[in-house]
Amino acid sequence: MTNSQRDFKTSGKITLIAWSILIVIPAVLYAFSVQLFPRIELDTLFAEAWFWITSSGTVPYGIITGLILLIACYYTLTRQQFIPLILTVSLSMAATLSLNHFLKPFFSEPRPYAVLMQQENLLNLNDFYQADNAVKKDKITTSLNLLATARADLVLSPAIKKHWQYEVGYSFPSGHTLFAVTLALSMGFYLLMAGQTLFPLMLFSWAIFMGFSRMLLGMHWPQDVLASTCIGGMISFASIYLIHKLSPTIAVLQKLSATK
């Protein structure tokens, strides 16, 4: 181990601190009942910037984001460092996607923008969430056309309007936050072990901004982001621990593949 590299314990502590910071931000918002939607003008360049951050976790762009980050890690780390990283990311992503798919219909929490639509008498939430996705999108499109008259102060950019029409599922948990937090912590840990600092910091910052983007754009409540950050961190640390325990077996398989 070179002087710039960090051991497993030290990297774990730093990652734990990063996770704590990720948790504190939505926890404070939730504790003081602070809602970030609708607090910004949604037809400005500022709002568009938040939309592009949120798009980095939206299919298919989320897949592209993950691939770009994996490629960057591949060229940053040695083969010995990269293999446990990609195994951890694969395991944590599989767990995250599965859990997100299960939890949304279980909690059945409406999104902030949908609640706003109901408050303006533009949408019936009971009818809306009982419909299939195609009907939901039609209902949101109709409500958005009426929103321009009901709330002249709330103007959406075309991109954000399209995003509302696309994201018609339940609110809890935040899949985007789960994705960003799990990926950032899983990758960040191994990058820290390799002696990297700036790359993990960028990943942790991206995860923070992702949570903010979901709240500012009316897609999630603070409690959604808070719970997703907690769940994402637990999945990441469990995956890291499991792959670490399997590291002797992984090392043997690496040696066998190298001799072929």
TrEMBL record:
The keyword Transmembrane helix applies. It catalyses: di-trans,octa-cis-undecaprenyl diphosphate + H2O = di-trans,octa-cis-undecaprenyl phosphate + phosphate + H(+). Its EC number is 3.6.1.27. Residues 85-240 form the Phosphatidic acid phosphatase type 2/haloperoxidase domain. One of its GO terms (cellular component) is plasma membrane. It is an enzyme of class 3 (hydrolase). Keywords: Membrane, Transmembrane, Transmembrane helix. It holds the Pfam family PAP2. InterPro entries: PAP2/HPO, PAP2/HPO_sf. It comes from the Bacteria. The keyword Transmembrane helix applies. One of its GO terms (molecular function) is undecaprenyl-diphosphatase activity. SMART domains: acidPPc. The chain crosses the membrane at residues 16-37, 49-75, 82-103, 199-219, 225-243. This is undecaprenyl-diphosphate phosphatase. It comes from Shewanella piezotolerans (strain WP3 / JCM 13877).
